[in-house]
Amino acid sequence: MKNLVKALILPAAVIFFAASCGQSQSKDAKIPEQTKATEQAADSVKADDRGYIVKVGDMVPQFDLHLLDGTKVPVSSLKGKVVMLQFTASWCGVCRKEMPFIEKDIWLKLKENPEFALYGIDLKEDAETTAKFADLIPVTYPLTLDLEGKTFELYCAKGAGVTRNIILDREGKIIMLTRLFDETEFNSMVELINAELNK
């Protein structure tokens, strides 16, 4: 009896899997053709050891900064200024450590300079959370929203961490990328910003 059951089940299973593979193959045959360009584009953008997919010398990817009051500032409108973009989040301990230095050593010294712009970009948090975060640190430089992380993904691999600063020259070219809070690197960034402003 067992042999009879095996004899009936085995051919049925073979037919089922053959049919399934045939259907999968038919679908799969179309997938590489449809997604080949997308996969090649993704493969061509490799993150560095700090999670960046951009590098010094690249032009800034174009996007809008979304202020807490709903105003949009196209990054292209900042051309002609030395720009600092800071990726941050309220849940990031290193951000909380770095932000008072940004406030004291950069923002408070340069905020009146019309040739300088600084924007914090809060990753995947709403306006209320971001405003509370700014008050808690406290910082007075403008924080903006990146609700879905799309702006972050123009610069970094998906899932890479925050506490990052991106410095742009007056043409919109990236001239420095930082990661985490290293005092020596931070001081170099302050010097670079001031040197660019003095050009």
What does this structure look like?
- It is a single chain.
- This protein is α/β, with parallel strands linked by helices and 199 residues long.
- It has two domains: 1-44; 64-197, Glutaredoxin, CATH 3.40.30.
- It contains five helices and seven strands.
- It has helices spanning 2-44, 93-110, 127-136, 152-155, 183-197; strands at 64-67, 72-74, 82-88, 116-123, 143-146, 164-168, 174-179.
- A seven-stranded mixed β-sheet has the order 2-1-5-4-3-6-7, with helices on one face.
- The chain is globular.
- The N and C termini lie far apart (91 Å).
- The relative contact order is 0.16.
> How would you write the strand order of the largest sheet?
2-1-5-4-3-6-7
What's the number of structural domains?
2
What is the terminal separation in angstroms?
91 Å
Helix content: 40-55%
What does the overall shape look like?
globular
Q: Are there runs of 5+ residues with pLDDT below 50, and where?
A: 1-43
CATH topology of the largest domain: Glutaredoxin
Tell me the β content: 15-25%
Q: What is the arithmetic mean of pLDDT?
A: 82
Tell me the name of the CATH class of the largest domain.
Answer: Alpha Beta
- Structural category is alpha/beta
CATH superfamily of the largest domain: Glutaredoxin
Supply Rg: 25 Å
Order of helices and strands: HEEEHEHEHEEH
Strand elements, count = 7
What's the main sheet like?
7 strands, mixed
Number of helices, where a helix is a run of at least 4 consecutive DSSP H or I residues:
5
The CATH level-2 architecture of the largest domain is identified as 3-Layer(aba) Sandwich
